[in-house]
Amino acid sequence: RSSTSDLNVALRECMAALDLFLNNKFSDALASLQAKTKDSMYHALTYATILEMQAMMTFDPQDILNAGNTMKEAQATCQRFRKKSTVADSINSLVHRQSLEHFTEGFFNYSLIDLFSSLCVTLEEIHAEICYAECLLQRAALTFLQDENMVSFIKGGIKVRNSYQTYRELDSLIQSPHYVKGENHLHFEGGVKLGVGAFNLTLSMFPARILRLLEFVGFSGNKEHGLLQLQEGASSYSFRSVLCTMLLLCYHTFMTFVLGTGKGNVEEAERLLKPYLARYPKGAIFLFFAGRIETLKGNIDAAVNRYEECCEAQQYWKQFHHMCYWELMWCFTYKRQWKMAFFYADLLSKENTWSKATYIYMKAAYLSMFGPDDCSPFGDNEAELFRIVPSLKLKIAGKSLPTEKFAIRKARRYLSSNPVPLPVPPLEMMYIWNGYAVIGKCPNLTEGMLETLNEAEEALARSSATELLADDRCVIKLLKGLCLKHLGKISEAEDHFNYIYLNEKKIKYDHYLIPNALLELAILYLDQDRREEAIKLLEKAKQNYKNYSMETRTHFRIQAALHQAKSAPENGMHCGASAVS
């Protein structure tokens, strides 16, 4: 076993490796760690964490598989350093002991090392406990990446709960008056704040139906407490500070949009990013987040420049370029530059393996927006591309991607010999990724999108009636409603959302439209402080509809809207939530 000095050396070496990683020296970072991954818990954890960050950024199935296997190996390394009896039990007995007569007066002056020694627990063993819990936490995060429906997460609940319980006990320890800060305490406390923050924040976002299952086995989460813990972890100088920062950046710039109502704290994201961008001006990860922040601020041209700069910053990690291509595709969608959007969808379809079905669907979708005089860049045929989408279905860890399922369902109408074309497929997929919350900050982009939707609506009115007419009308109504809302035309937006609900019986296939129309109407009411009406609509959307496209994502958004609706106006705290600590 390593001594305390070896633990210090390991932490220094691992922080140096992270520094290399953040400077785009990816292979150097991994090489500096690899030799000690079997002998040092921090080297094993850091090595696996870098691979996990790669997987999180690229969504590449092979990256996800490699990261999962490596994290499992890191967990085994950490296990060797753990005390054979449960450390959490020892800590629990210390923290919750009712009488102080068990302690000597001098006990309170002991260092952290002496404290754990008195419990027959070494400093190394307590660090092994936090590293082991972190391995479990990161494996759970990978599970979520693979399965948005959370089935695997719940099935693996025992392992996740072990991590959760360990963080709870360690958090109780550092809150205890008996806790004395010792050497490396910042790294230890940073690990606790990362875990407590991640669990609280993530659990608070889960849809009610999933949360009920998790609460049954002892989980609970509080969004505000989670954010606070991560903010404290990010502001301290520790091994985990960059991880806390990146999780917060992901939350404010992605999770609140893709799985929320689009009300992320962009200003906070900018504040968090600023010192890292100053220290790593060519760091690809931070340039990417800088691009995302510009996107969310509505500065699309500035965002494009940042993403291009990100691609130029490094060539080793090609998969990371694909994240930029995905964002660039949407940037040009917002600008209605269909050929450029097609170009990036085409690049993704040829270079990235996350979801060929989605990429080909988007290629076909952009082709459908070309004018009569526009030539297909590569001679591709819109209908033929749509027809091959179902054959490209991919399963990751036995699960199909929700976005891919959506694309396949939409593309099926082209299997007919005389298909009815989709009216505005890229603009519909843009809704799935909450893109209207992005362009809503730019009246000129929103007005342009509304113009395109009006043209599509007029074309639909001129076309022959089909069994899909109601579906197509309602798709356009939903998207127009969002544009009208962001342009301040509240009454018109309300009418568009209500139109969908009133025509529910006429919708043949796109049943996702009804709960989402109710959700958007509820969010509109929330913006007007019509809370009671909003809550009723959200409950209706949550309770009355099931088995529709992107259902789990819609439930995540409903949960976010309910959280907003039920938050006390004076302090924004979530009613009735309990924190991990």
Automatic annotation (TrEMBL):
Gene3D superfamilies, alphabetized: Tetratricopeptide repeat domain
Keyword Cell wall biogenesis/degradation: no
Keywords, sorted A to Z: TPR repeat
Entry keyword annotation includes Zinc: no
Pfam families listed in its UniProt record: Iml2-TPR_39 (PF10300)
Lineage: superkingdom: Eukaryota
Family according to the record: Belongs to the TTC39 family.
Protein name in UniProt: TT39A protein
